[in-house]
Amino acid sequence: DTEVTQTPKHLVMGMTNKKSLKCEQHMGHRAMYWYKQKAKKPPELMFVYSYEKLSINESVPSRFSPECPNSSLLNLHLHALQPEDSALYLCASSLSGTSGIQETQYFGPGTRLLVL
Amino acid sequence: QQQVKQSPQSLIVQKGGISIINCAYENTAFDYFPWYQQFPGKGPALLIAIRPDVSEKKEGRFTISFNKSAKQFSLHIMDSQPGDSATYFCAASIMGGGNKLTFGTGTQLKVEL
Q1: Mutant choice from B99, B101, B110 vs A, greatest count of A C-beta within 10 A
Q2: A92 neighbourhood in chain B, CB within 8 Å
Q3: Beta pairing, strands A10-13 & A111-115
Q4: Residue A23, Cβ density class (10 Å: 0-12 exposed, 13-18 middle, ≥19 buried)
Q5: Is there a contact between B103 and A109 if contact means CB atoms under 8 Å apart?
Q6: pLDDT confidence band for B41 (50 / 70 / 90)
Q7: Can you list the positions of beta strands (E) in chain A?
Q8: pLDDT score recorded for residue B74
Q9: A69: contact with B, CB 8 A cutoff
Q10: Does the beta-carbon distance from B106 to A41 stay under 8 Å?
Q11: More confident residue, B4 or A95
Q12: Could you tell me if A90 and A108 are in contact, meaning their C-beta atoms sit under 8 angstroms apart?
């Protein structure tokens, strides 16, 4: 099973709301990623977790807060977002992120976020 | 220096034709070059990948050609089918670089009947 699941599929939120995106994988992967993708643009890396520890933060604003409660789950907590944060948020996972070889990243279908 | 340039931005090909998408990079430290395919409403999926120690890799109708000296690589889709209509992203990464992918800008491919 090479599936990464993401919930919800769609989310509409106001600028004062707090919401969370959820990602789950059961492939035994120990590296998980959050990407942001705007329409007709490539995915942009936001965060990387390796063995449940944050290993890369691509200077993402603090209104985005990642959390990795265990090796299968990855959350992205959202607070006080701006309309320009509207995008498709993609989660991905790979073997470990530290194996010293290139690892295939498996992407979920994404959560389409609209900030009003 | 971290950029990967991709062209064309969009491409229309007749069914049965050859689709060619090109990418170029500057950072000679890149040592892994995957191609991702993304359908509307879906996340990207790995299509095929190559390392710089080979000049060509073929998987079914998909071929990557790699020119290390020119710092260019390309995706060829033979016998293109309407089901190949999608957005294609080339990417590059450095082994030991945290598995971080640098994506190209994307090519929207449409295969017409």
Answers
A1: B99
A2: 43
A3: parallel
A4: buried
A5: no
A6: confident
A7: 4-7, 10-13, 18-25, 31-37, 44-50, 53-57, 64-70, 73-79, 87-94, 106-107, 111-115
A8: 98
A9: no
A10: yes
A11: B4
A12: yes
CA A42 → CA A27, A35, A100, B29, B102, distances in Å?
A: 25, 10, 25, 21, 9
3-state secondary structure of A84: helix
Q: Is A48 on the interface with B (CB under 8 A)?
A: yes
Q: What are the angstrom distances between the C-alpha of A73 and each of A29, A57, B45, B100?
A: 10, 18, 20, 20
Q: Are B21 and B13 in contact (CB under 8 A)?
A: no
Q: Which of A6, A47, A56, A105 to mutate to test the interface with B (most CBs of B within 10 A)?
A: A105
Contacts of A41 in chain B (CB under 8 A): 105-106
Amino acid occupying residue A102: Q
Would you state the pLDDT for residue B105?
Answer: 96
Strands ordered across the beta sheet of A73-79: A4-7, A18-25, A73-79, A64-70
Per-residue CA distances from B68 to A28, B24, B33, B65 (Å) = 35, 10, 11, 10
Retrieve residue A69's tokens: 């409660």
Interface contact flag, B105 A41, Cβ < 8 Å: yes
Task: Spell out the per-residue pLDDT of chain A, length 116, in tens.
Answer: 669 999 999 999 999 899 999 999 999 999 999 999 999 999 999 999 999 999 999 999 999 999 999 999 999 999 999 999 999 999 999 987 776 677 889 999 999 999 99
The backbone torsions φ and ψ at residue B98, rounded to the nearest 5 degrees and listed phi first, read: 75, 20
